[in-house]
Amino acid sequence: MAHGTDTSHGHGDTVVDHSHHAHVCSFQAFFGIYVTLLFLTFVTVAIAEPVSGLHLGSASMLVAMAVAAVKAALVMTVFMHLRWDTAMNNLAFLGSLIFLSLLFLFTLADHSTRQVADPIGGTPVEVKRFGQD
User: How far apart are alpha carbons 30 and 42 in whole angstroms?
Assistant: First the structure.
């Protein structure tokens, strides 16, 4: 056998993996995502009470977070190529998002129960030291 024709992939042979290829989106797809992100940014600004005067009460935070989640999903699926990525990478990414969500959930649970644990509401208490009357 001639040098370089051996298929055993010995030392010095180059192995090229053609299983992963670039994903090119059309201009129309990118422009559509751009317009959608601009619209969602406008919605986020519009629900901000000091800017627009629109009063949604406690729902404004929920709407803002939902809009932010949609915008993040658009960016992740297209610009981070998660739409075309392997299942293992998607699983790792979603696992990290779930872990981050749990951290936020535990923080919110702690914050919401502080009034129960401290019925005074965090007001300063006068501390008397030894020897003071």
Answer: 18
User: 127: number of CA atoms within 13 Å, CB side?
Assistant: 4
Q: DSSP 3-state assignment of 94?
A: helix
Residue type present at position 77? T
Which residues of the chain form beta strands (DSSP E)?
Answer: none
Domain boundaries, the chain: 25-83, 85-117
Beta carbons of 84 and 23 less than 8 angstroms apart: yes
Per-residue pLDDT of the chain (133 residues), as tens digits, is 555 555 555 556 666 555 656 667 788 988 999 999 999 999 888 887 666 667 777 777 788 888 998 998 898 888 887 777 788 887 888 888 899 889 888 888 887 776 655 556 555 556 566 666 5
What is d(CA 127, CA 133) in angstroms, rounded to the nearest whole number?
11
- Is this prediction's pTM over 0.70? no
